[in-house]
Design goal:
Elements (H helix, E strand, L loop, with lengths): L4 H4 L1 H20 L4 H38 L3 H12 L9 E2 L6 E2 L2 H16 L8 H5 L15 H10 L13 H5 L1 H13 L1
Antiparallel strand pairs: 1-2
Helix pairs in contact: 2-3, 3-4
Amino acid sequence: MNRDWFDENDATLTRLIDKKRAALNAFRANPHCNRKKIAYHKAKAEVQSHSRRAKKIWMQDRAREIQEYADTNNMEAFFTAVKKIYGPPKSGSVPLLSKDSSTLLKDVNSINARWREHFSELLNRHPVVDRSVFDELHQLPTRDHMADPPTMEELIKAINQMRNHKAAGADGIPAEIYGNNTHRDKLFALICRI
């Protein structure tokens, strides 16, 4: 069972809450008595003050504990301690209003359908652009040399810039593979074909 700041101060807080409750009942029995009103407000302030102080001390202790776990790189204890404070992750869906705001959608299928409808409308709008603006845009000259295949020197330079034991792309092939002339020639031929 997880103990929180209230559990650790249960006896003191229970005594203060009972005192506040008795003062409230006495004040309600005689609402025109200024002494009972002052006693009630004093008891209420005492409960709030002690509660805030106890919670602050408890949170500071937990923060020190969690910081210690982070400093020692004990991630399992770190996440367990954080979970004790915030509780388990909440799952589920948040209700959503229908398009006309008349119905609150609560089931997952209708919420997903509403989001699909919203993004379909948002992303599939007809453009409201004045086409004459395109004619006024300055056109840069086409650089045809950018379509030329790379040279072997450019490929070797690119391979040498890759870090060893690291894959440059999603294929997971490290730079050392391309250091071999046989593989380099095959790669060059493939790039030229592409």
